[in-house]
Amino acid sequence: MTPPKRILFIMSDTGGGHRAAAEAIRDALIAKHGAEAIDAPFLDGFRVSRFPMNYMPEFYPWIVNHSKASWGLGYKLSNSKRRAAFFSATMYLTNGDRFRKFFRAQRFDVVVSVHSVLTRPTLRALRSLEQRPPYITVVTDLVSTHHFWYDRRTERCLVPTQAAYERGLASGLKPEQLRVTGLPVHPRFTQALRGKAAARAELDWTGDAPIVLMVAGGDGMGPLYETAQAIDALGLNCQLAIIAGKNAALKARLEAASWQLPTRIYGFVRNMPTLMEAADILVTKAGPATITEAAIAGLPMILFDAIPGQEEGNVTYVVDNRAGEYAPSPSLVAETVRRWLAEGPQALAERAARARAIANPNAVWDIADEIWAWADHAPIINPRRQRRRSDSVRRR
Ligand code: UDP
User: What is the pLDDT of residues 55-107, one digit of tens each?
Assistant: First the structure.
């Protein structure tokens, strides 16, 4: 029996998108080639790092929620070719030994990074070995992609949009290293879509009034509560379905509030395709995965928030493609919902069609095929390391 291909995914639980992307690709590979053909562990590159980096999955939602401006400043200050190289080198200096130890202990056929900050330090650790597996970057930001994503030594860099492709070129990658595939969304997402009526029945969402689905990423970030209250206050002919994600405090606050509209409140959900298909309007933070999923579900979106830096370009992308609108305050969101509902079902259907037009549900399969092909590639020899070894053998 041929041994399973060992495919390492480098990710982190900073937000929900990185794990979601890795799981999507892994499960597409398993669907195509069978579970016995693949052994695909995940490495949370921050968790194996030293303090304080090892707390990044906890810090990240806190920083973005409480110190948005400084996060944005940090993002912008680090986002030049030279500064990104400097910060990556610092991360490597402080944590490279841990990555090297990890890679020395295990053999992989291919390594896939779905995390910007971890890409360069982990590739550098691999390049310290005499030979290493091919390294593929799958960029999981949509448009305003940070220079951290792009390392010229990567074998392949798969990007979601043309804008991300152009940024890769500007960062020094060659056209033959880059490919626009779209953002990977789990195959089960598309498979779960069975029509609005079936979705509503499954969720037990009764009534004919349009449904406004609200979500703010996996961590429930930003002014979701205030935005929901502003929509509720208008007393429109609609229903609310609010997802707090992993933010337990937000869920408790939403549950304690009184609502004049029919309102359902959820914690972290595992049935996003059904919820998106059943809904008529999405109110969301400009998260790349959520935007991509909404496009596949044909759900027009009102973006109420964007993480400074990495998500700002997503707003332009959605607005320019007329897949949604930007409404950066609770009252603007409420007003936009009111206007969309007043335009009637035909206008809403047209908005839904424009959202669907930016979808690329095949992305996950294209990415899985690339990774599978690279898993058959011979290891990449590091000539400098090999030379050093043969020199020392000769000296002996
Ligand atoms: N998500 C989910 N359940 C929830 C909330 C979010 O499965 O209760 C998923 C959502 O479908 C998407 C991801 O978490 O796949 C959120 O990623 P996004 O890039 O939108 O934002 P992030 O959480 O990374 O800031």
Answer: 888 888 787 777 778 888 888 888 999 999 999 999 999 999 999 999 999 99
* Better-predicted residue by pLDDT, 337 or 217: 337
342 with 384, same domain: the answer is no
Is 84 in contact with 148 (CB distance < 8 Å)?
yes
* Phi and psi torsions of 380, nearest 5°: -85, 125
**pLDDT tens column, 224-262:** 999 999 999 999 999 999 999 999 999 999 999 999 999
Residue identifier of the C-alpha nearest atom 10 of ligand 1: 290
How many domains, in total, are found in the chain?
Answer: 2
| Residue 17 CA, ligand 1 centroid: distance in Å | 6
Cα–Cα dist 38/42, whole Å: 13
CB atoms closer than 10 angstroms to residue 238: 21
CA of 82 to the centre of ligand 1 (A): 31
Residues lining ligand 1, Cβ inside 6 A: 15-17, 20, 215, 217-219, 243, 245, 268-269, 272, 287-290, 293
- In this structure, the answer to whether residues 202 and 339 fall within a common structural domain is yes
Say yes or no: 178 and 115 in one domain: yes
Residues paired with residue 135 on neighbouring β-strands, in sequence order: 111
- CATH of residue 203's domain is 3.40.50.2000
- 309 and 342 belong to one structural domain: yes
Q: Which of 290, 311, 317 to mutate to test the pocket of ligand 1 (most atoms within 8 A of CB)?
A: 290
> Does one domain contain both 380 and 340?
no
